[in-house]
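Late entry, evening session. Most of the bench is empty. Finally got around to the prediction I had been postponing all week. Sequence below, unchanged from the version circulated by S.P.
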Amino acid sequence: MTIQQELQQQTINPLVEMYVIDLSVIGEAIHHFTPNIEGSNNVSFGGTSYLPLPLAISSVERSTAGSPPRAQLNVNDYSRLLRSYIVDNEDLVGCRVTRFLTLRKFLDDGTSPDGSQRKQVVTFVINQLESTKGDDLVFGLRNLIDLPNLELPRGKVTRKQFPGAAQYRAQRGV
């Protein structure tokens, strides 16, 4: 059964949240984490080991109105793993963060191991390190479609280039 079919059942296996932080942009390794900590054991999914680390992406919403959401990645870096990269690599700016969900049964030690069963895959790019307080790190994220330092419109909307713009304004009484 696929993850979509499983989610439509009356009883659902526990959801497991997974994160991939891709530091290859700065010449480092790709790291895999999960905030779903069962003791202090690593979680294996699709043959990849996910380290337990308290982290979460906040302010993620889907909307067609307004600007894309400005998400934040909150990490409790008690192991100091990410902090060592921050110092040497410009606060990890440009590195990708991918979050997805799967079900407990699809983990490698689950009842139906299947590394292809992922849901709600969302990818962001680290835009800046917003704060550090003790072991807590907060990164500002941007969508992949956001282009840095780009403001729209780049030029004026004229009747010659966009004939429909004049008709729209006339209909609105502007």
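Two things to note before I forget:
The mean pLDDT is 82.
Residues 3-172 form one domain.
Will write this up properly tomorrow.
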